[in-house]
Design goal:
The protein is built from 8 helices and 7 strands, in the order H-H-H-H-H-E-E-E-E-H-H-E-E-E-H. With about 240 residues, it is an alpha+beta fold.
Length: about 240
């Protein structure tokens, strides 16, 4: 190709690049909270609390319409489908539950599970590890306060799961408002757990059975291919790697 032809082609390529990315505007934390609120209002989201929750989770409000086209209405940040949940989770993995350990001395989290990391679907400020530890509030039936709560996700050694995870640092922020002054053992565990990047609380758990994906209270959610495709689309729109 001649030099003059290359020069003429460059502006065209620049225009083409802009046109193919204009519908996928990356979220930037440089956007102020006030500016974010204004963008939300432009899309009809007038609730300041909802806008704050979206902002704190770094949800790309600029792609409001694109999310809606995928079945996710950002006006309903607490949507219960697997796509909406993926926007609220820092880390999403596929793994296998390998072991269970009870800890009745921990007043907050009575049971923990070791889960191998087979596939990382989403990671935010996390360096993937070979395995993670899950802390859960329930224990064997009859032993602990939260043992019989309906709808609590149950784990079984050997099962393959899709997990939506939250770092313990975030989890414990919600507990800091509670009075734990006389619970020294719990406080020491909090300080240790929140510093370990591979200890999480699972926000949601899905189970693989062959090529199908199930949730304890929802039943069949979809095929593995459908679920992975849906989460990948959310990540693309939200520019999360």
């Amino acid at each position: 190709m001649k030099k003059n032809s290359i020069v003429l082609l460059l502006p065209f390529l620049s225009i083409l690049a802009c046109s193919t990315t204009k519908n996928k505007i990356p979220f930037s934390q440089k956007i102020t909270r006030e500016a974010y609120h204004q963008i939300a209002k432009d899309f009809g989201l007038d609730n300041p609390d909802s806008a704050d929750r979206l902002y704190d989770r770094e949800v790309n409000i600029k792609n409001f319409d694109q999310f809606k086209a995928q079945g996710v209405d950002l006006s309903e940040i607490y949507g219960r489908d697997y796509k909406s949940r993926s926007l609220r989770s820092d880390v999403i993995i596929v793994g296998t539950v390998h072991s269970q350990k009870e800890d009745p001395s921990d007043v907050l989290f009575h049971t923990e599970y070791s889960v191998s990391v087979d596939k990382v679907i989403k990671k935010k400020n996390w360096t993937p590890a070979d395995s993670v530890t899950l802390k859960v509030t329930y224990g064997p039936a009859g032993k602990y306060t939260l043992a019989s709560i309906a709808g609590t996700d149950r784990y079984h050694v050997g099962e393959t799961v899709l997990l939506y995870l939250e770092p313990m640092e975030k989890t414990f922020k919600s507990y800091e408002a509670r009075d734990l002054k006389n619970q020294t053992n719990s406080i020491s565990k909090i300080n240790a757990d929140r510093k370990d990047p591979n200890i999480f609380q699972a926000l949601k758990k899905y189970t693989f059975k062959g090529k199908k994906v199930y949730q304890q209270t929802e039943g069949l959610v979809g095929t593995k291919a459908e679920i992975f495709k849906g989460i990948k689309k959310m990540n693309q729109l939200n520019r999360m790697k």
